[in-house]
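Structure ticket #2291
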Amino acid sequence: MTKDSDATDGPQLTEDGHHVVIDGRRWRATDPTIPDSFRQELVDELMAARRAVKAAEPDARRRVNDAKTALGERGAPWWEERSGEDFDARIAAAIRALVRKRSESSICPSDVARTVGGESWRTLMPEVRRVAADLADADQIVVTQKGSPVGIRDARGPVRIVRGPSL
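Resolution: structure written out below.
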């Protein structure tokens, strides 16, 4: 374990930085490669979802799970290989959490890639688009280009993602 923490240092981290220690319990740390602006959006969505749980709102626990998964605190460990079904689940969770947070606007697929991919985010764009296509098929998101809905599998060039009717 690292040195004791105080109010300015935040929670105590394990030697490898993969977990925080709070009241003697280990919890998975947030992925440190998430850019600050996206991390803050996900934390804001997590806090809103936790308030929704307290208010017994429908789908609140799913929102908490999506935000925590997008932050890297659940699902496949963020320090392991970024591929496979578990990583696809993190991409999907990031998409859902970000479109919920930006309910009045849209997100770019690169926002998701930056959130889950760290410095190698560009290599993840095909995976993000593939997962987005599956979410669009399930009506969880709508993919648009120049303001009009498009099929992301066929779209060339930049697209935007908005919240779908079944999310």
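Closing remark: Confidence is low (pLDDT under 50) at residues 1-7.
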